[in-house]
Amino acid sequence: MASVRFDGVTKKFGDFTAVSDLDLEMGDGEFTCLLGPSGCGKTTTLRMIAGLETPTSGRVHIGERDVTFMHPKDRNISMVFQDYALYPHMNLADNIAYPLKVRGENEAKRHARAREVADVLKIGQLLERMPSQISGGQQQRTSLARALVYPSDVYLFDEPLSNLDAKLRLEARGFLNHLQRDLGMTAVYVTHDQAEAMALATRIAVMDAGKVVQYAPPLEIYRRPATTFVANFVGNPPMNLLPVDATIADGAVHLKAEGLSAAPLPVSRAAARALQGNGKLTLGVRPEHLAVAESGERNMISGQLFANENMGPETLVTLEREDAVRFTARIFTDDSLALDGKVTLGFASEHVHLFDSNGTRLP
Ligand code: ATP
């Protein structure tokens, strides 16, 4: 096992900067998720660890080794791809054992080790089959087994679950979490699925346009998103965001917007200084922190009922305001809620997030 470190790494394709001046240290035994929308540079970052791309500038280290220009096969890494990339003409046993064959292990040893890993991954009974004769979930586990058959310093995953249907995906996610607990491997895992990152990562690097915008443990990212981009990306449904006018008085910020009543919120001196008396802010509240308001609550927002979706254990109630901003409440009840016309949602002050006009969280 080993740590991975990026020092000032930039990767350009022609004039286009895919990864921009990246500094990132992923600890030994950590499971790091690179999370972000399509095109933000996640895969390029992963491929630079693998040696499938070379940085335009900067350095990549695995443990103490500077691997910036090292050939992929000398890096002692394993990679699991989105499309599994199994060899169609080999049965599962040979597919799984392939990394050992490349390293010159004899056949008996190769097959014994392949069986061992396949048993752990619950595909031991399928070893004689060809890839075309097994399900997508089994192919995914075969590809995982091939990555785990040889002890590597770092395991790299490029959206390995994205070709699975929703049910298998959940099962495979739980399995990966279990594996990580067992093996304590150093892993870097690319995904655009925030739930996957929350469930698997010890730390998440949220990326946007070639940069890491926040790098923190999952709960920290959920509780204190650094920007509106992160707030919007992590959480399902995403955080509700509303532009508001803000005035500082008596060490508290007073928020104003049509259809909003909000109790003054104490703010730090740094935030008060940044606001310089008054200005525009963005108010954020997560759907799970909103409920249908009782009259006279301290914090309330109103609008017309837009949607009322009962999902079984929870109901999503969405209102639409005059300014077309929608607010969704995630209410944990298996009763359907009888609502119509004007709806008012309430929230507690402790669940308010505030961001400045650049979308950066107030200090
Ligand atoms: P996705 O989730 O869609 O895979 P990503 O976050 O992994 O996205 P990358 O694959 O790292 O994104 O790509 C980052 C940007 O760099 C994209 O705009 C992509 O089009 C561009 N890019 C990637 N590889 C190349 C290449 N070989 N040549 C030119 N541009 C590239």
Automatic annotation (TrEMBL):
PROSITE patterns (UniProt xref): ABC_TRANSPORTER_2
Domain ABC transporter, residue spans: 4-234
Pfam families for this protein: ABC_tran, TOBE_2
Keywords noted in UniProt: ATP-binding, Cell membrane, Membrane, Nucleotide-binding, Translocase, Transport
Gene3D superfamilies recorded: 2.40.50.100, Nucleic acid-binding proteins (2.40.50.140), P-loop containing nucleotide triphosphate hydrolases (3.40.50.300)
Coiled-coil regions listed in the entry: none
Keyword Endoplasmic reticulum recorded: no
Keyword Membrane: yes
UniProt-recorded Gene Ontology molecular function terms: ATP binding
Family classification: Belongs to the ABC transporter superfamily.
Stored PANTHER family: MALTODEXTRIN IMPORT ATP-BINDING PROTEIN MSMX (PTHR43875), TREHALOSE IMPORT ATP-BINDING PROTEIN SUGC (PTHR43875:SF15)
Name of the protein described by the UniProt record: Maltose/maltodextrin import ATP-binding protein MalK
Annotated gene: malK_4
